[in-house]
Amino acid sequence: MRLWRLARAGQLTLDGEGARLHGGRYSSSGRPVVSLASEAGLAVLVTLRYAMAEAGGMDAGYFLGWTEADAVPERIAPGMSREDTTRWVDDWLDSGRSLLAAIQSAVLPEADVIFLNPLHRDAVAVSPLVVRPFRFSECLHRPPALKQFRENPR
Predict the structure, then answer these.
(1) With contact defined as beta carbons under 8 Å apart, do 107 and 128 qualify?
(2) Residues near 11 by Cβ (< 8 Å), separated by ≥ 6?
(3) Which domains are delineated in the chain?
(4) pLDDT above 70 coverage of the chain, percent
């Protein structure tokens, strides 16, 4: 399964250290976990939500990366409260029962947020991210053909 991540240079390792120190979206602090996306577009959208909120966030030094994991993620049931989801993820991490878990994205419901347990025995087989520089300004600029399409709608 191909997994995607858009992050700054210091956040590209798959060690879950940020979540261990500060907690994750659905995990308590003290537990390493890596948040990834099933689609590159979801990784971009999720990061964009945060980048827009901070001064200079849109021009920060981001990298878009992917890796492969030979595993099928456990499915987290939709519709649980945040607290119940956090309990589920914490239990999943503590149990070490699988490498990956997936939850439907609230940002793009057609895609999944994929959690990787870096302490799972199979995590050593997950390669580091293959990355390229990413700049929001290169994809969110005014389209060159916008005027043409506004003047000649189909």
Answers:
(1) no
(2) 18
(3) 2-151 (3.90.175)
(4) 94
Burial class (CB in 10 A: 0-12, 13-18, 19+), 42: buried
Which positions ≥6 away from 92 have C-beta within 8 Å?
74, 98, 101, 115, 117
φ, ψ for residue 64, nearest 5 deg: -100, 125
Q: Which residues lie closer than 8 Å to 112 by C-beta, 6 or more apart?
A: 37, 38, 42, 73, 102, 103, 104, 105
Number of separate helices (H) and strands (E) present in the chain? 5, 7
CA nearest 102: which of 44, 42, 48? 42
- Pairing state of beta strands 74-75 and 2-8? unpaired
35: phi then psi, degrees, rounded to nearest 5: -95, 125
pLDDT in tens, 107-139: 999 999 999 999 999 999 999 999 999 998 888
Nearest in space to 92 (alpha carbons), one of 105, 80, 106: 80
- Judge whether 88 and 25 are in contact, CB under 8 Å: no
Query: Is the CB of residue 31 less than 8 Å from the CB of residue 93?
Result: yes
Its pTM stands at: 0.89
